[in-house]
Amino acid sequence: MPAIDPSTATIPIDAGDFAADDQGEAAGKGLDGLLDFARGRLVAMVEDARDALVGQVRGLKDIADLLGDNLPEAAQPVAGLIAGATSGIDQIADALAEKSVEELVEDGRALVQAQPAAAVAVAIAVGFLAGRMLKAARD
Question: How far apart (Å, rounded) are the C-alpha atoms in residues 80 and 83?
């Protein structure tokens, strides 16, 4: 049986999902074109998720601002802490909004390399929370 060259092998795909007019010349390039198409779709999905996250972070800032504005006079020290936190939240939202997907991935890699134990702990916590949310959604 002859060897198959993956760069020239044709892969059956749904033409509606992967057409030359959607991805330029990439559709005619076999596996490389499919990989470029998949990468483009993945980047678009991550950008959409990033934009949604930025909106949620800004919403969290708005809630914290509202909370700080409606505290009684006796709780002014707490209001000062909330104001400081909202400043940090706003900086996080700005940083997320300004960075490209590639920059965010590189920052994530650097963070995992610098603090692998923290990265594993966050991954476990996110997995646990996702599992709980899925279980609650089924019930």
Answer: 5
> Which domain range does residue 139 map to?
100-139
d(CA 130, CA 70): 33
Nearest-5° Cα angle at 123, 132 to 34: 100
- 34-50: per-residue pLDDT in tens? 888 888 888 888 888 88
Three-state DSSP state, 17? coil
The per-residue pLDDT for range 90-131, each reduced to its tens digit, is: 888 888 888 888 888 888 899 899 999 988 998 898 888 888
Say whether both 79 and 134 belong to one domain. Answer: no
CB count, 10 Å around CB of 84?
Answer: 11
Q: What is the CA radius of gyration of the chain?
A: 23
Do the Cβ atoms of 19 and 27 come closer than 8 Å? yes
Tell me, yes or no, whether 105 and 79 share the same domain: no
Tokens (6 digits) for 58: 């800004």
Q: In 10 A of CB 97, how many CB atoms?
A: 14
Burial 63-77 (b: 16+ CB within 10 A, else e): ebeeebeeeeeeeee
